[in-house]
Amino acid sequence: MKGGRVWVLWLALLWMSSLQAQEKVLHVAFSASETGFDPVQTSDLNTAAIEQQLFESLLTYDYLARPAKLVPRLAATMPSVSGQGRVWTFTLKKGVYFSPDPVFRGKKREVTATDVVYTLMRFMDPKNRSPYKFLLDGKIEGLDERAAQARATGHFDYDTPVAGLTVLDPWHVRVHLKTTDYNFGHAMAQPVMGIVAREVIEAYAGDTASHPVGTGPYRLGQWLRSARIELIRNPNYRPEVWHFSPGNDPENRRLVAQMEGKMLPRIDRIDIQIIEEAQSAWLSFGKGELDILGIPAQFSPLALSGDQLRPEWVRRGVHLDRIVEPAIAYYFINQQDPVLGGMTPAKIALRRAIFLAMNDGEMMRVIDKGQAIRTTYPIPPGVAGADAQYQSLLNYDPELANQLLDAYGYRRDRTGYRLQPDGKPLEVQYTTGLSSQDRELDEVMKKSLDRIGLRFSSNKLKFPDIIRAERQCQVQFRLSAWIADYPDGDNFMQLWYGPHTHENNASCYQDPEWDRLYEQTLTLPDSPRRDALYHRLARRLELYGVTKVSTSALRNVLSQPWVLGYRAHPILPSVWNYLDVEERHGATP
Amino acid sequence: MTVQMDSSMRSESAWSLALRRLWRDPVGRISLGVVTFYLVLVGMVLAGWLGTRWNDPVAVNYAPPTWFVSAANRVTLPAGEAWDRTLVVPLYGWTDPLEPLWSEARAAAQRIQPEPVSYRLTLPFGADKWGRDVGQKVLKGTQTSVWVGLVAAFVATLIGTVLGALAGYYGRVVDDLLNGFYGVLTSIPYLLLVFAVAAVLQQKGVGTLILILGLTGWTGVFRLVRAEYMKHRTREYVLAAGALGASHGRRVWVHILPNVGHVVLVQFSQNLVGFIKSEVILSFLGFGVPVSSVSWGSMLNEAQNELILGKWWQLVVTTVAMAVFVTASSLLTDALRDALDPRLNS
């Protein structure tokens, strides 16, 4: 009897190991922790990358088309737009089901127009404090009034319909906008706009971030917070076929040859590790333990010579994909900070002096290892509204910074560091993370501030804590980065909009004059008139010492030879659902 | 004969005997020499005679190490990035809130012509990514690490000795309380405890580091000193002192302490080595010294990324400096224990 049991166990194990061999797994790594998977509460790229796979928005971007082009995802077709860009009608795909969850009691739950309306409403619920509220804020008829009512009563009414969100039938929803908005389609393509089911959100109220239930190609498997996230194939996923047009790009033609006509998703399990140290990630890729890796800047000399992949990697069959990120790295100073904030000329001068002392050239050379370009305008290349000719007011110039500080009475004490004009001590607190690259940033920052006689101190936090502190306007000074959610300048300019304080306006800048001009840009499509306004906005940020745009990074992504169909996408945070992996053919050293 | 007898019978103090025994041991002699050499270096850096220029970029980035200096070992680079100071940017209809001082400052800055700076192409110990001399850095790093180790070991030994003496001498409630405290503290894994203290102190700096290590590292000393005091408090000489009217305090600090001094001294030197290693680990993990300073740990942390790029010199120099000191200190601890323990010497 006993022996019999052991025999059965062996058989089961054998059967399981044969399954393991057939299972296709993709291994990837993130450099920072996820923050939890409720789309409405997400603001960081890593979490968005996972949500891109768990949830589906109405629209998305074509995988291969450049510049990025909107295409339908949960919608059956592109929306029909009427009323001068104010009435948007979306048609949903039929037969789309949420991934299985106990809340559905074993029944398959189909997505309908009501879910779309609920998902949009959630962003305006004050309880959710959504960082992406700006996508809908002040845009949809009746929704802001609903939010105001919720602020007054403490309860958001989801049951009464809103004038601007009309359910025509289960598969048609019409959105009435207050003003003309040509970017509403981009808003509907955000991974955070992934459609959710009301009963799931309400069943897990208070802990929605750990119970993501969407319609995406994957669902959440094992999850070790801040360590490992596993995505497994969603059994309810509808039949989707890999079909993209290669255009004139030979690299795209290779992809089409590999992937055209395959049923999606190809990969059974996606294994995401959080590897904060770039070196560990780099070595893992070298050993073949990671399948796709963006080359950490400090290791680019090992992978690249100039802009080409080094021969030893080419011989291993590794592919390089290289694009300019639609992103900016920018310094910001908290305008509400008791030491650096405020609108008196002396404070403005201090902030401008700090920005003048930032050595962008050295930053690119030493920290980015040449894998970045200097950008001065808040809108980076490749995004509508960009201006490569824009001249910054705040170029690296420590002599000018010193003259300015002298002129405004920031005297030096006996140690050579400056005091506030009223004689109080002065210290600039810079916020960074805990990795070794953050220490390098600290070093550049200290050197830069030493040059103009400002005392430096560093505040080291984990990434999610930095974001939290920024929202509470408690970060004094930081080099932050913003990557385009959608390829339009508005996505960058909104970073300084007064009402976005406590959301994405980390500088906590509230300037009625600036806000008024910004609101004007919202009514304009991408045009020279809008560009003129953007130039005024950008200059005002420099004049008042709010921000200095520093660089745009180059993204170099390596993929192993057994990864099929990979192309870096400037906007989509993850493209795992379009990939396939082959059996490895001894390419690992 | 009588003369000889006299000289051999003159009683020597236990401490000078121990010192003689230490000096007779060649390992003890050498390690004492090395440790003294390091302490002198630390003193000189603290006094500002050495390692003061560690933060100055004197060479090109990653200048390689070489001992053969040729005449053409310098390169002159323009100071600062080239940008046209005379360029007037359009304000797009705004007025500058800092006028007229901004224009005046610009005019004044334009008159300053930055001097071109010359950098070295090689250095005896090489340069780091900012072109700082690794030789200077390792001096400064040695000072930080050894100083942190010394002061933290002093703090830990002081706390451990005082609490151990109280617990061992008074026993009963005092002993129970202190033992309970000891038990709680040692039940927490060491690194976790260190991180917890670091999180509570909230500040970064050499002072914080010393506090962290000192406040968490006294437990070993406590245990040993307590045991010694329990043993000694019933000895005849202590009872005699009590009979003669010596107070408890006098018995604890004047009568017993000198007799357990050797245990304290050995513990001190053992802690020194332990704390230097802990400092390296903490700095390596990013909890250590701030960027305004440099230590062995922060240098090793930098070196991990450099090594992969083939820049080995910072790693080698730091490792050698650290390994020599830690080894010498450990050997000295052993030799001290041997010298101070009369039973081993019979």
Which terms would index this structure?
heterodimer, A: alpha+beta, six-stranded antiparallel beta sheet, four-stranded mixed beta sheet, 18 helices, B: 346 residues, mainly alpha, MetI-like fold, 2 domains, two-stranded antiparallel ribbon, 13 helices, 2 strands, 66% helix
Structure description:
The complex is a heterodimer of chains A (589) and B (346). Helices cover 30% and strands 19% of the residues of chain A. Chain A has 589 residues and is of the alpha+beta class. In chain A, α17 packs antiparallel against α18. The model of chain A has no long low-confidence stretch (mean pLDDT 90). The model of chain B has no long low-confidence stretch (mean pLDDT 84). Chain B folds into 2 domains: 256 residues, MetI-like fold; 47 residues, no CATH class. A two-stranded antiparallel ribbon of chain B has the order 1-2.
Short recap of the structure:
The complex is a heterodimer of chains A (589) and B (346). By secondary structure, chain A is of the alpha+beta class.
Outline the fold blueprint.
The complex is a heterodimer of chains A (589) and B (346).
Chain A: H1 2-22, E1 25-30, H2 45-54, E2 59-61, E3 70-72, E4 80-82, E5 87-91, H3 113-124, H4 143-153, E6 165-169, E7 172-176, H5 184-187, H6 198-203, E8 218-224, E9 228-233, E10 240-241, H7 250-259, E11 263-264, E12 269-274, H8 278-286, E13 292-294, H9 300-303, E14 304-305, E15 308-309, H10 311-315, E16 319-324, E17 327-333, H11 345-357, H12 360-367, E18 372-374, H13 398-407, E19 427-432, H14 436-451, E20 455-460, H15 463-471, E21 477-483, H16 490-493, H17 512-522, H18 528-543, E22 547-559, E23 563-564, E24 580-581
Chain B: H1 2-9, H2 14-24, H3 26-46, E1 74-77, H4 101-111, E2 117-120, H5 134-170, H6 172-187, H7 190-201, H8 206-216, H9 219-232, H10 236-243, H11 248-284, H12 296-308, H13 313-340
Antiparallel strand pairs in B: 1-2
Helix pairs in contact in B: 2-13, 3-5, 3-13, 5-6, 5-8, 5-9, 5-11, 5-12, 5-13, 7-8, 9-11, 10-11, 11-12, 11-13, 12-13
